[in-house]
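Working notes for the structural subgroup meeting. M.R. asked for a predicted model of this chain before we commit to crystallization trials. I am recording the input and output together here so anyone reviewing the notebook later can reproduce the run.

Input as submitted:
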Amino acid sequence: MTAQSESAFINTHREDLTCFWDRIKGRVLNWKSQYEWPKGVIGEAALKRRAELERAIRQDLAMQAYISRTTFESIMRWGFMVESGCSEEEIRRITRAAFQYLKRDRIAAAARELVTLPRIGISRAAKILALSDQNELGIYDSRSAHGLSDLVDSTGRSIVSIPPGRVIRSDNKSRDSYCTAFEKFVWVLRHLRRLAGCSEQLRKGLARVADLEIALFMRSKSGDIDLGNRPPKIPTHLRDVAEDDEESFFWTLGPGEKAKGFWVIFKENSATVLTGQGKTPKTLNANQVDACLRHFGDNWFPLSNSKTLQRRDSRGLGEYFARNFGSSVFASHFAALWVFEGRLEPSFRSGALWLRVLKK
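Returned structure, recorded in token form:
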């Protein structure tokens, strides 16, 4: 994408952006002041950790034009509490290519390089890129994008798509579409920074694009946006095993109100899904997951998880679950989990969900 594309995008949405800014500008600094990430790391300590990661990325790029595996995994642990499992060679090759694009401000192209890595979805890719330059880039994930949910065009359509996340319903776009949305997200934040610069009160506190991203992230977490995306209360019988909504709650991939909430208990070599509806939990271990994904190879396949045999596609994930795990129902829950983990890519076709295994 070129600089002219950014200008055209802003010109198209200038009035929408101004109206949005007028609605939120009185609360942005307050949202930013509440920043917490990871859980329990608050305010200046949270900002300091981001700054440390930014310095590590910049040092790597200055020395070798790519990110070391040590720095890469530090970002993963900070953002997701787990390591990526990518090899040193993969990280070197792909981050070198990604940051060559980013040097030319080709944000979407840089993200497209990173999401070719195994289990690296757009939220992980955005953290790697955005933390390299917090002056000009912001992290694009389900929370920060949700903070822009009420930024809409004249037709009422959201201007920035919401990517896959745990607590927030996503917009179920393709991997490539999310890379484009990341670029638009940054363009939006850059323009909001320009608007903030018109106010002496806001100019200093919102000098970086990251300052606005942080504020939007906390806007989402604060509950100031009521668009039906907040997780339901944990059922009483699950509270002992799913104590924290933020860490264990997910949405299935159904569009809009068809998405259903569920909880996941993670252990070292397994994941257990609980629907909160009195149904028996379903646990799959790492070997079962790997066998399932190997079964589908490189081809697209349907979810097709109907309880009724006659309505299930024999090629689908639902049929695999019915034959191997006793029920087709949980296919939708594990599909959503695997999309979040970067194992599957989703695509909606004629109202049906199709999936593809992402290469390691």
